[in-house]
Write a structure and sequence with these properties.
The complex is a heterodimer. Chain A has helices at residues 36-41, 53-58, 60-75, 92-97, 100-116, 127-136, 149-158, 190-198, 234-244, 255-267, 279-286, and strands at 9-11, 14-16, 48-51, 80-81, 121-124, 145-148, 173-176, 202-204, 249-252, 275-278. By secondary structure, chain A is α/β, with parallel strands linked by helices. In chain A, the strands form three sheets. A four-stranded parallel beta sheet of chain A has the order 4-3-5-6. Chain A has a four-stranded parallel beta sheet with strand order 8-7-9-10, with helices on both faces. In chain A, strands 1-2 form a two-stranded antiparallel ribbon. In chain A, helix 3 (60-75) packs across helix 11 (279-286), helix 7 (149-158) crosses helix 8 and helix 9 (234-244) crosses helix 10. The radius of gyration of chain A is 18 Å and the shape is globular. Chain A starts with 8 loop residues before the first strand and ends with a helix. Chain B folds into two domains: 2-31 and 63-250; 264-275 and 293-433, Fumarate Reductase Iron-sulfur Protein, Chain B, domain 2, CATH 1.10.1060. Chain B contains 17 helices and no strands. Chain B has helices at 2-31, 43-55, 64-93, 104-132, 147-179, 209-233, 241-250, 264-274, 306-314, 320-324, 326-329, 336-357, 367-370, 374-377, 385-389, 396-410, 416-428. Chain B is elongated. The chains are: A alpha/beta, B mainly alpha. At the A-B interface, helix 2, helix 3, helix 4, helix 5 and helix 6 of A face helix 8, helix 11, helix 16 and helix 17 of B.
């Protein structure tokens, strides 16, 4: 259970990998990621705050999504900043596990930071952060225009700030797994699909999709615990539904779903033929950013 | 003789309606055991939602076969109730087909009742086959064993019998009219049009008017007494949805499904905790000295809100929630339908306790553990599939969440690994034990 020397940490059913964590890794500055604190010093305000989230900050797989999204923001010339070390868990897993105290404390702390910087607009690549910031912070005094990164990317494309062509995904058979907290919870089904259509992929839908989409099994705090006894894991069931439509790529829009579906594909020993990718990664990879 | 039958009818009617009123009072008393919740806002939107989902059955048809059959039974039920009105008036005043003065309109009405009665009969037979002969996942749940399964079948048998009686009544009535029997035949000709029951006439071929009258009267009486019985069966069965679906949808949550309710009591405590000027030793405010600290979450029906309790009475155990539940589909113990059934069963138990003792006497039981198991609660992914699936706006997830709140905040009884994740969030702002100061390291890694 403890933090391993390789930087990995096992909690519940998922092993989180953070291989650089215990290394003193000072690689060359690869990405320019301004923080709100730096903006404050310069007396500037960014167009949008990028809320990275815990997975996006610490999980090796999710960090790739974070970086892909940052590259897209740079490419589109978006003036953005992150909170960096001032960011903290939104409290989503705590709230859904029933720990309203912890949720409220996280919310109060985060709202103090966000309001302190007079944040107006927030974009995040995590539907759990998205839902919590958008729906559960306002009553506690945190009122922001919160959007999911797929919605933001769609806006950038519509405004012509970002251009995308099919590139290497053109004609590929792709299915999109709806994250519960983007889809059912917030009625956003089209933004990620619109992005995929822009990539000129062959979009195929699973038997259970959109409003009827099946959960990947990670929500409600399940990400951090062993599943209750049953005859199958939820992510295996969902992966089987995805395999039915024979995709080359399973597209996701949530770091938790990404982990669950990746594990499911590995369980089915299909990792050589099927990739699990975030929509933002696909857009960034389409022209090899 | 006629007057005796009229008096008997009025007595039966008063008894049936009176008993029903008593049950409705109990139902309202039981619902009021829950916490108050204000769902009176946005009445326009609420009415529109009710019209769409309850009246318009918009969610029923998401499953086309059962949805279509249900609409037939639903429309049939409403339409045939117009006929019940006529039966009641005839019964009280000893008249025969009082609405027949409507002439051609009456013929159309009776004809449509007949057609619907036939369609309802067929629909109900198909429902029975689906429930008993086909292996449909949602009818096989462990919570449907015993009474719930029998209950469902009794309702179906009841509807079959009522429709059959209605058609027999019409057939014999028609035959009596054709025979020119007293009280039945009218100089104006045949009253009503009998597109379905005319095919039953051969059954009554050659019977005397006296025999026909006995059969007609028997069918008439059994039909109306059956309806009065059914009205009172509702409270004891899963069938209350025919009434409660409407208020239930009206009072259902309007906000986005992802928005979970805010616990104001916790919000206040956290605000106090984080306020550097708060005096931890301050005396409680005037009038609040003896106030018991509010319980967090729910361990029994008293802790749930009134809409959640209304939900439990409305549930008709169709199991669409359970068949969409990711936990249930993968063999976990959780079934959102069982959450609703357990809530109602416990509420009824508490209600009977109150009826018997005048007030609630502690029975050493509660909703948690005695009905709903922790293993069920911890299997939920909060994905909202059950909420989306419910055709009458029930929210099983809100009960699961309230019970988790009790487990975590009152009992510190979260599963161990979840506790570790929450401790991590508390200590370093992430579910994993990585230092908050390292949150931006990703930007420097390759």
């Amino acid at each position: 259970m403890a933090l391993q020397p390789d930087g990995s940490f096992e909690l519940g059913q998922r092993k989180l990998i953070h291989k650089n964590y215990l290394k003193n890794d000072t690689m060359a500055e690869a990405l320019k990621v301004p923080t709100m604190a730096e903006y404050m010093v310069e007396g500037k305000k960014p167009e949008v705050l990028f809320w990275v989230g815990c997975s996006g900050s610490f999980d090796d797989r999710a960090k790739k999504i974070t970086k892909a999204f940052v590259k897209l923001l740079h490419k589109a010339g978006v003036d953005f900043a992150v909170l960096g070390t001032e960011e903290s868990c939104t409290g989503d897993p705590a709230k859904r596990a029933g720990n309203e105290f912890l949720f409220q404390m996280q919310a109060a702390t985060n709202i103090e930071v966000l309001n302190g910087y007079e944040i107006k607009k927030v974009v995040t690549a995590c539907p759990h952060c998205f839902n919590t910031l958008k729906n559960e912070y306002p009553v506690l005094g945190g009122n922001y225009d919160v959007i999911h990164h797929t919605q933001f990317l769609k806006d950038l494309l519509n405004e012509g700030r970002l251009k995308v062509e099919g590139g290497k995904f053109k004609g590929k058979r792709i299915t999109f797994h709806d994250p519960c907290y983007l889809g059912r919870a917030n009625n956003e089904y089209e933004a990620p699909r619109d992005l995929l259509r822009k990539l000129e992929v062959e979009l195929v839908e699973m038997r259970k999709c959109k409003k009827n989409g099946l959960c990947c099994g990670a929500g409600g705090g399940q990400m951090f615990k062993e599943p209750e006894p049953g005859n199958k894991d939820v992510n295996i069931e969902r992966t089987e539904q995805a395999l039915e439509v024979k995709p080359e790529i399973i597209a996701a829009g949530c770091p938790f779903c990404n982990t669950m579906m990746t594990d499911g594909v590995k369980n089915k020993e299909k990792e050589d033929s099927i990739e699990v990718m975030d929509v933002a990664e696909m857009i960034a990879n389409a022209d090899e950013l | 003789m006629q007057i005796v039958s009229q008096i008997l009818f009025v007595i039966a009617l008063l008894a049936g309606v009176g008993f029903f009123a008593r049950n409705i009072k109990r139902l309202i008393r039981n619902i009021k055991l829950g916490r108050e919740i204000d769902r009176t806002d946005n009445s326009g939107e609420r009415f529109a939602k009710m019209a769409r989902i309850a009246l318009g059955q918009s969610k029923m048809v998401k499953r086309p076969v059962s949805g279509f059959l249900h609409i037939i039974v639903y429309v049939g039920f409403i339409i045939i109730n117009i006929e019940v009105l006529e039966i009641v008036i005839d019964g009280i005043f000893g008249t025969h087909r009082i609405f027949s003065f409507l002439g051609g309109t009456y013929d159309v009405l009776i004809a449509s009742f007949e057609i619907f009665a036939f369609l309802v009969f067929v629909g109900v037979v198909i429902f029975w086959i689906r429930r008993n002969a086909l292996n449909i996942y949602r009818f096989l749940g462990r919570e449907l064993k015993g009474w719930p399964k029998n209950d469902a079948n009794y309702i179906l048998y009841f509807e079959m019998v009522l429709m059959a009686l209605f058609l027999i009544m019409n057939a014999t009535d028609y035959q009596l009219q054709l025979n020119g029997a007293d009280h039945y035949a009218s100089e104006a000709g045949i009253m009503g049009s009998f597109p379905v029951s005319q095919f039953l006439l051969p059954l009554f071929d050659g019977m005397s008017n006296a025999t026909l009258i006995i059969i007609e009267r028997a069918a008439w009486w059994l039909h109306i007494l059956g309806i009065l019985f059914f009205l009172n069966y509702l409270y004891y069965s899963k069938h209350l949805h025919i009434l409660l679906a409407f208020p239930n949808v009206y009072f259902s949550k309007l906000s986005l499904q992802g928005k979970f309710d805010n616990l104001e009591s916790v919000q206040k405590e956290v605000a106090l905790m984080m306020d550097p000027n708060a005096d931890p030793f301050a005396a409680p405010a005037e009038g609040e000295e003896d106030a018991e600290p509010e319980k967090f979450g729910a361990s029994d029906v008293f802790d749930l809100n009134q809409v959640q309790l209304l939900n439990s009475y409305t549930c008709t155990e169709c199991g669409r929630c359970t068949s969409e539940c990711p936990a249930n589909q993968t063999g976990k113990k959780l079934s959102p339908r069982k959450i609703m059934m357990d809530t109602r069963d416990r509420l009824e138990e508490v209600g009977e306790n109150i009826t018997k003792n005048g007030k609630f006497e502690d029975d050493g039981k509660q909703l948690l553990d005695n009905y709903i198991l922790r293993e069920e609660l911890w299997a939920c992914t909060t994905c909202n599939a059950c909420v989306e699936a419910c055709p009458v706006g029930i929210d099983p997830l809100s009960i699961i969440l309230d019970m988790r709140r009790y487990l975590v905040m009152e009992q510190s009884a979260a599963p161990n690994e979840l506790s570790i994740a929450m401790t991590n969030i508390e200590n370093n702002g992430a579910p994993w034990p990585y230092n908050q100061m390292d949150r931006l390291n990703w930007a420097k890694e390759n």
